[in-house]
Structures are given as C-alpha cells and as structure tokens.
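SUBJECT: A protein chain and its fold
Encoding: whole-number codes for local backbone shapes
RECORD BEGINS BELOW THIS LINE
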Amino acid sequence: MNNSRRAAAFAVARWIATKDFASTLLPDGADRSFVQDVVYTVIRRARPIRLALSRLLRKWPSGEMEALLYVGAAQILYMPSVPDFAAVNETVEAAKECANPNIKKVVNGVLRNLLRRREELEGIIAASPLEIRESFPDELVARWIARFGAEGAEKLAKWHNEPAETYLAYPGRFEKLPRGKRVEDMEGFEEGRFIVQDPGTGLAVELVAPEPGECILDACAAPGGKTVQLAWRGADVTACEVNPKRRRRLVENLKRTNLEGKVRVVEAFDVSESQFDKVLVDVPCSNTGVLRRRPDARWNWSVEKLAALVRLQSEILDAAASRVRSGGRLVYSTCSNEPEENMRQIEALLSRRPEFDLVETKESIPFETGFDGAFAAALARR
C-alpha cells in the first residue's frame, strides 16, 4: 500500500464500519504521520465533510468510494498545507487500485467539482448550526451550550478540533514538545527521564500530594502516567489494572522509566489485605475532556453510554473508598468535563459514605486552561 491516501482511505473505511479506536487503525511506515493527519481530520470533521459532499452526490456511496471521498474532501476543506492538485491527483491515484473502475471516475469528478464550488460549500458549512459546522453529536453540543453558553460551547468545540500538542512530564514539571521533534529523539527518552502526559493530568497528582514513604494505591493505573508521577515523589505505590492488555502497557511504561520492581503491579484491589494512606481512582470515563486527542470518542458518546459509565464509576469509587485507611485521602479523577461524571459523582459518594469529607476539587476546562479537560476531587476519611 504505497499511496498514503490509499492507506488513509483503508483506515477510514474500517473506522466507518467498526467505530474502532482511530489510533488502532493506523499503519506503520514512513507516511504514518500524514496518514494520521488525514484520518483524524476525517473523523473530526465528518459532519461538515458529509454536508459538502452530499451537495455533490445524487446518492450517498458506501465502502471504498465513501472512504476515498472523505479523504479527498478532508484535504481540500481542512488541510491547507496540502496543495489542491495533490489532494485530488493522489486520491484519484489511490482510487485506481479499486477493483471497480467507476470509483476512480466518481472520485475524480466529485473532488474537482468540490474545488470549483468550494467557496459556496464553505459558506453553507459556516452558516450551519454549531454541532454541524464543528462536527459533534447534537446532544453533546446542547449540553455544552447549557453549561458554558453559546460562546463557551463554540470555544470548546473549536479547541477539540485542533491537533493536540504533546507535553513531556518530568519530575515536578511539564514541557511542551517542540514542533517537528519526535518524542523518541528527545534527550532523556532512552533513560526514562520523562513520560508523555498532558498537564491536565497533574490535577489529580497535586491533590494526592504524595509524600515519600506513603502507601498509595493507584486503583485504575494504566497506562501508568500518574503511577510514574506518584513514584517519582517517593511514594510506595501499588498499581492496579484489571485489563491484561492495558496492564502490559503499564508494565512497559514502568520499565522504561526504571520503576519496574519499585512499583507493585496487581490485578485487583483485594490482592492486598491492608488499607492505604491514599488512594487515587482515575475511572473510565466518556473522554469528553480529551476529544482533541481522541477524535473518535465524540462519535461513541451518547446519553445512554454516559449513564452506564456513571454506574460503573460509582461502583469503582465505592470499592476504592473502602481501601482508604482512617485519616487517609481518596482522590477521584476523570478526563471528562461532564458534571454527572464529576461533581455529581462526588456528591453521591458523600451521601453514601458520611465518613468522608470533601477537601478540594480542581477542574481543567480546555478553552480556559489551554490543557486537556480533567476533573479531580480530594476527600478525607475521618
């Protein structure tokens, strides 16, 4: 698969069919970065791209043709660094590999028509409601408008449609990865001096406030970024992860940062008979704080899935709370900005567990902080 547009179209076709994590669909190779840009742009901008293409098509296509049209249109409408001739010609070249010769003809005709009518179609997109022009589920945008107002919702939507910046976390500080630099090429990578993590994740670690020698349980530890930060501060950390695949990734990160053997990795809470000075529980969530990094997550969001997650979070939170010793601290965190997963979850726990008192909460709203969305709350057990 030499043509990068062909690789991108293949990934897009699989995503349309399966809604798998976008990162798992990307091929290895020299063109991976460009292919990722194209695929992520398609996923981020799916609604306005479909709107524009629907004005150029009599019948909506499927399979290879649909994927190739998305790939070509994404480059024309949302990737200004790609010359128009390259966007069209290379996508048509990719279409030549399709078994059906009509696909090449249709892709060529539609993309050239898109170029001719670009100004008109961009005007139609610009005049569309926020959820269409910025490409999010209707219900999610309605929630943002209710919470942040129309202006705040638009700022948040635009934030999540920008390519994510990469931050490196060192002991005690975060640094932005310089543009054009690869993480693997940064000084200290081989020695495990840093991990890749957004400053938004630091809220939870700040509230844990780990001290040397404290026994701390990281209850949902993978991929291990917060585990590493706790261990860097000298805490005696037990990292729990029930998912075998994610647990392997946790172990790999501990090994790279020279913490393997210093952090105890377990599969479940009950393997330890003792309680802990502090427990961090970073629960599975809807990821609405990190849609910039996880563009596919917006299309997996629904009110029903949110409700199921809230139930799961409540169960995990209760289990984690039982591991906190008297006088200890429980820190709950998410990478979500949805109230049901955050403050309402804490209020519900406090009503169930009167032995806990709320100490402090922190939240990162991306358009306010400039970092990933996140929430963290610290509770003290009497």
User: Anything to note?
Assistant: Residues 4-128 form a domain with the N-utilizing Substance Protein B Homolog; Chain A fold (CATH 1.10.940.10).
